[in-house]
């Protein structure tokens, strides 16, 4: 009598309801020959019946599955002797609850259950049985009621097609709101944690401070006890690394897109495109150790040979590797956009005696620009949010510097280091991660808004 | 038929020869294909789109300072033939052009020839208006800028104005030269494209149904323009309007399913067509 069996039965009932509804509609019309008396095709009456049978019962099942355990546990605990309950701490209580549940489902390992637990578990089982029977009865009743309702509404003038349409619309709204609500939930939880952080550390210090050393003293007299939460070095670090990445990715990606879209013979295109896409498929952690183990030492060696002092974990190494990672984004997005420019524009330019590169520069590129800008900004968001490469190659030192040869740290790296390891969940150090996340989110949001604005502006001008 | 397919499957090199063998049956052109004073000379032109033989053994001269009209039912290959004259078919990967075309005695079909200056000399107005996604002004200024035709902004302004005036568009757009060219109506876009072609003063102008979206007044302006241009330039025009062909052209060529069926002076074609197909078409019994 598991929920999945019930689910299966509901689906079967829906199929049955579909058939009954359809039959009923044909019957009401007076046979297959006369179905044009009906407002809608018979299948719509079938769908209508199926939806009335399926939707309420499925909703009930959903709620039941979510609430059953809580309610049963509460009821079981209420039966326990009051004095036992009174001396239990929160931790012990949850242990007790899980003991009862485990015993009830027959897999309590190791310990011999106490008499109390055994009684409670028996009670729990009994309640579960009642609940199951109730659920099945309710589902059966609701399915029958739904079918009866649909049956009774099936008349030739009933607008089943429109009804099905609106029910489908409601379903679609429901599903799309899942995504929106999830986003909202994440945003709110980050926001609340950030507010808690800003209660401990003033937001002016966070936004304008130039010192980042998120240490919180365990003992008041500890050395270096004062934590500093100035996020400026992190953001400059992020900007520096992203800037280096874009400096590499935009020209390379764009030019290779132009080559692939405009110049490359078909033979070249057939293998060059997949190769670029492989680049996009490499896991970022692989890029990360490529950056840390190959590029960074190489950079340092190169620097030494020309007398430059390049740190072994440098913004340059991380930025370059991140740039390589982003090239496929820029190039494949740009290539799509360039390909979407109609051939007639190229023809128009060629017919005026323009060369291919003049045509690309003066006609295709401006026409494709909104899309290209969109693609580039998307790549920027990606660069800003990228974590693995910078964790491995950029370092942890929060230097406030614009020198790409030095080691820097980024917002994402700090979020990772703040949240890994054992942490008190309400220390300023942990909460700082949420504040960083929120700021990062706001920055990316602003970037996307700007991107949309640019794209729209050009579109108004050109389409 | 089967035998030909098999032969070509065995020896792909024979493919072309097979095409030729098959095409022997097609009509030979009626009328005088050559011109006493030719600007462009086309001999035995064949065009294939993959395996679709769109132009079959067409030979035709285009004389200096003449307007030649190309007429024929839809899909008969008029645009395809026109596009051969400035090698625009190069931009269609599926298209294959064979035969000899000369401009002032110089072969333009050679692989080695640079098509860029050729296209500057042989301009084209496309069947579908294709303004650039730029302002009206920039649409016209595009060609002159590329070729460095003007030395100052004032000269460029003037060139833009005269081009637009000749295409009969100036009055409508003079107050909004900065507005996007794509925001014009279909007929205005068509005239914008004509003005754009005029701005680089090509020696030969190919016009593919330049008046298809124009009202009678704008059409009259373009027809006057064509007449005026004839003094200096050579013009080939595709049109679906018999009256237009009769009004603007000196010679007319009738195409049918990829064949050049008949060519002659416009008077002869419209008054005493020699070929049955031509007669059917111009008297409205066809297409
Ligand atoms: N880009 C192309 N790819 C493949 N086939 C083409 C292409 N352009 C034209 N064709 C084919 O070539 C033949 C001639 O086409 P074309 O455009 O030259 O006709 P047209 O005489 O200009 O017709 P219309 O009066 O409708 O413009 C048609 O059968 C057409 O299907
Ligand atoms: Mg055409």
UniProtKB/TrEMBL annotation, chain A:
Membrane topology: Multi-pass membrane protein
GO molecular function, one term: phosphate transmembrane transporter activity
Biological processes annotated in GO: phosphate ion transport
Ranges of residues in domain ABC transmembrane type-1: 235-451
Location of the protein in the cell: Cell inner membrane; Cell membrane
UniProt-listed Pfam families: BPD_transp_1, DUF3708
Gene Ontology CC: plasma membrane
Role this protein plays: Part of the binding-protein-dependent transport system for phosphate; probably responsible for the translocation of the substrate across the membrane.
Name of the protein in its database record: Phosphate transport system permease protein
Native source species: Thiohalocapsa marina
From TrEMBL, chain B:
GO biological-process terms attached to the record: phosphate ion transmembrane transport
GO molecular function: ATP binding; ATP hydrolysis activity; phosphate transmembrane transporter activity
ABC transporter domain mapped to chain residues: 40-282
InterPro entries for this protein: AAA+_ATPase, ABC_transporter-like_ATP-bd, ABC_transporter-like_CS, P-loop_NTPase, PstB-like
Keywords attached to this entry: ATP-binding, Nucleotide-binding, Phosphate transport, Transport
Pfam families in UniProt: ABC_tran
Regions that span the bilayer: none
Taxonomic superkingdom: Bacteria
Entry GO terms, CC: membrane
Protein name as annotated: Phosphate ABC transporter ATP-binding protein
Organism: Thiohalocapsa marina
Lineage: Bacteria, Pseudomonadati, Pseudomonadota, Gammaproteobacteria, Chromatiales
């Amino acid at each position: 009598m598991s929920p999945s069996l019930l689910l299966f039965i509901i689906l079967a009932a829906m199929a049955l309801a579909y058939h009954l509804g359809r039959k009923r509609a044909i019957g009401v019309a007076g046979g297959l020959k006369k179905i044009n008396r009906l407002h809608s095709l018979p299948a719509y009456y079938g769908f209508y019946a199926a939806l009335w049978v399926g939707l309420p019962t499925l909703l009930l099942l959903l709620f039941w599955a979510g609430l059953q355990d809580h309610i049963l546990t509460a009821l079981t605990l209420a039966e326990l002797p009051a004095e036992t309950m009174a001396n239990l701490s929160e931790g012990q209580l949850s242990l007790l609850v899980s003991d009862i549940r485990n015993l009830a489902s027959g897999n309590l390992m190791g310990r011999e259950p106490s008499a109390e637990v055994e009684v409670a578990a028996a009670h729990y089982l009994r309640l579960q049985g009642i609940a199951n029977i109730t659920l099945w009865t309710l589902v059966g009743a609701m399915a029958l009621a739904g079918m009866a309702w649909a049956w009774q509404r099936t008349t030739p003038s009933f607008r089943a097609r429109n009804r099905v349409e609106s029910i489908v619309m409601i379903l679609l709204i429901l599903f799309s709101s899942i995504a929106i609500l999830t986003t909202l939930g994440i945003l709110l939880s980050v926001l609340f944690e950030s507010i808690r952080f800003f209660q401990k550390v003033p937001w002016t210090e966070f936004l304008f401070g130039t010192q980042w050393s998120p240490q919180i003293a365990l003992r008041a007299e500890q050395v270096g006890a004062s934590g500093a939460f100035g996020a400026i070095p992190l953001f400059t670090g992020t900007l520096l690394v992203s800037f280096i990445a874009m400096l590499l990715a935009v020209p390379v990606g764009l030019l290779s897109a132009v080559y692939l879209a405009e110049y490359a013979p078909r033979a070249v295109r057939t293998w060059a495109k997949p190769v670029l896409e492989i680049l996009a498929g490499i896991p970022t952690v692989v890029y990360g150790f490529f950056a840390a183990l190959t590029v960074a030492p190489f950079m340092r060696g190169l620097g030494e040979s020309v007398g430059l002092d390049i740190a072994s974990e440098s913004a340059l190494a991380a930025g370059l590797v991140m740039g390589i990672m982003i090239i496929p984004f820029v190039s494949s997005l740009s290539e799509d956009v360039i390909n979407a420019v109609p051939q007639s524009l190229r023809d128009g330019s060629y017919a005026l005696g323009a060369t291919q590169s003049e045509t690309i520069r003066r006609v295709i590129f401006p026409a494709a620009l909104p899309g290209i800008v969109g693609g580039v900004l998307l790549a920027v968001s990606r660069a800003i949010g990228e974590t693995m490469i910078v964790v491995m190659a950029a370092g942890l030192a929060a230097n406030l510097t614009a020198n790409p040869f030095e080691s820097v740290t980024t917002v994402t790296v700090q979020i990772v280091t703040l949240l890994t390891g054992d942490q008190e969940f309400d220390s300023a150090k942990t909460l700082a991660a949420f504040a960083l996340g929120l700021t990062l989110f706001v920055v990316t949001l602003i970037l996307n808004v700007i991107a949309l604005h640019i794209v729209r502006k050009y579109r108004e001008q050109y389409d | 038929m089967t035998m030909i397919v098999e032969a070509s499957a065995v020896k792909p090199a024979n493919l072309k020869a097979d095409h030729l063998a098959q095409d022997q049956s097609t009509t030979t052109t009626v009328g005088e294909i050559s011109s006493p004073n030719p600007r462009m000379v086309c001999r035995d032109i064949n065009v294939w789109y993959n395996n679709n033989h769109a132009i079959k053994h067409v030979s035709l001269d285009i004389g200096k300072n003449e307007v030649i009209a190309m007429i024929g039912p839809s899909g008969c290959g008029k645009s395809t033939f026109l596009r051969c004259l400035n090698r625009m078919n190069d931009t269609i990967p599926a298209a294959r052009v064979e035969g000899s075309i000369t401009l002032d005695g110089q072969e333009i079909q050679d692989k080695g020839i640079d098509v860029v200056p050729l296209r500057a000399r042989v301009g084209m107005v496309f069947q579908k208006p294709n303004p650039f996604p730029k302002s009206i002004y920039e649409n016209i200024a595009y060609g002159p800028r590329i070729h460095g035709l003007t030395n100052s902004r004032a000269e460029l302004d003037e060139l833009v104005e005269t081009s637009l005036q000749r295409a009969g568009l100036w009055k409508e757009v003079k107050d909004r030269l900065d507005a996007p060219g794509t925001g014009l109506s279909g007929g205005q876009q068509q005239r914008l494209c004509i003005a754009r072609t005029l701005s680089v003063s090509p020696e030969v102008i190919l016009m593919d149904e330049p008046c298809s979206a124009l009202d009678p007044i704008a059409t009259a302006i373009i027809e006057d323009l064509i007449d005026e241009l004839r003094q200096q330039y050579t013009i080939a025009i595709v049109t679906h309007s018999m009256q237009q062909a009769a009004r603007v052209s000196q010679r007319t060529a009738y195409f049918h399913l990829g064949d050049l069926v008949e060519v002659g002076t416009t008077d002869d074609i419209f008054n005493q067509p020699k070929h049955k197909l031509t007669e059917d078409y111009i008297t409205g019994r066809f297409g």
